[in-house]
């Protein structure tokens, strides 16, 4: 079973984005709220968006299951206030739940959190609990920069995040650390802010003892970990200089990297440098880059074709990267798949 | 001849840092200025700092010449006002000129610029001109984030930077795009902000036509280009998606990467992915990481030992990376070396 741990509903029906625009404009204009009931999306619209989008590519590429979350850039936590973000998160997460209800064999739900600049994380912990316990979600996205491009929040290792981490541990679900949009003209979104977010979060973890406080907390760094594997020696040296324990001891029991790296040489580096137990297959299709690479004939984000072409990955490691690790990092996925099997037997 | 294009005076005599502290405190306290005349550093102190520091390592590693600039983190452009930054830049640059005067065979000077949040770049252009024409400098450092960790400035491709670029072109010297310190608790300096700065600057260039306006402008991205070579496919795909010309056409005539990547696998990726003509040897010794790597027995920043151990680099490419490219990118270095030869003949 090949599990893609990183997919967003980037092909959502336009009504979703239109509702969000109305929500933002109403709040910015007069502080008014727009009811979620004003958003109407039919099952047929969802089916069309998925069948012509992510499901089509799943089938073409031979992957089985995508961990599916709302559009990451569109989380855009800086807009409005905490209530804006809460309502938007619920709307987005409820739509993801419907996708995964319509296509239970192909998609498992991952939620966004109602983070908001300066807000506590208690609302995020509550929305996580709602999604996991009521709607069967298996993980969440955690934005390390709710200011969306200006890094105004404390690091992820600050105690302000602890209510969320307590809930993640209690529910036994991981978080993917994923920034949202950049509203900073100097810092482009998908090719700068995204990668910087991964690099910055990793370094926050290197400087802290977060995993002493939460030994079972699991965090996934998307986009191959930003700059991290390419600069693995820099981080190893940093820890040595400061007399801190090595990465293997301090981080690699809790931190995982996805494979959203869009050329073979990059993926060779990732799979050479990072232990296979810490790598989760992912494509982020249909996402940051949509073109076909003229050098390979595949889309840039067809990371399965790229990984298939790397012979140095041992068979056991390949199985772990393609799905085994995801089942370990997302244990609720195992329960979900077992429930589905039971239903199929009935 | 092996040229290290990236070295900072991180071992400067303590009097320099003490003067800078007084400068900052006086301005923050009452807006007062501290005269550069209050800084006294003897030639013997400079000799000791260099002979026990960068020169010792040059000899041990078998490199010949370091392009030497003030401490990058210590540029700290956010402190004080434009005048603070101008005086600090002159003090720092004058000290670099003295180092290179005392050790003309081993060091060539690169200046910092008196950037300041919100200030125009005319003072930077003037200080560049002073350093190049009066003191024999061959390049400069350009900070893409004078806010030091919050990215408050427009992108490097904004017209506000054009007076500096005009001067760089007129004087035929390149700029290394290097952030200074991070004063943002969420974004550590050497292992997050530095790499993010490189990634962000590269993406700014990908989005613009800067080099149409300045076809001979040359920019060096330090730290192996941040996340860029590891995510080369992402950038290629981004340009294709937007119908922009490929990297070879749009950027690689003007943008160069240094080799400050502190493990062999990272340098293999760099030298595989980026054309050899765009790579300049560098170590940034004595800098971000000072430990010896127990896996190699060399210091992490001994990039020469790492590159020497990569057999896939063709001999011509190796010569270009180790020095040929630097002579091309820093043409004033050629003139400087020729002057020295003439002096030696006399």
UniProtKB/TrEMBL annotation, chains A, B:
GO cellular component entries: cytoplasm
Database matches in InterPro entries: ACMSD (IPR032465), Amidohydro-rel (IPR006680), Metal_Hydrolase (IPR032466)
Domain Amidohydrolase-related: 3-331
Organism, scientific name: Amycolatopsis iheyensis
GO MF term list: carboxy-lyase activity; hydrolase activity
Top-level lineage group: Bacteria
Any Pfam family hit: Amidohydro_2
Keywords annotated in UniProt: Lyase
Protein name per its UniProtKB record: Amidohydrolase
Any one biological process term the GO annotation gives: secondary metabolic process
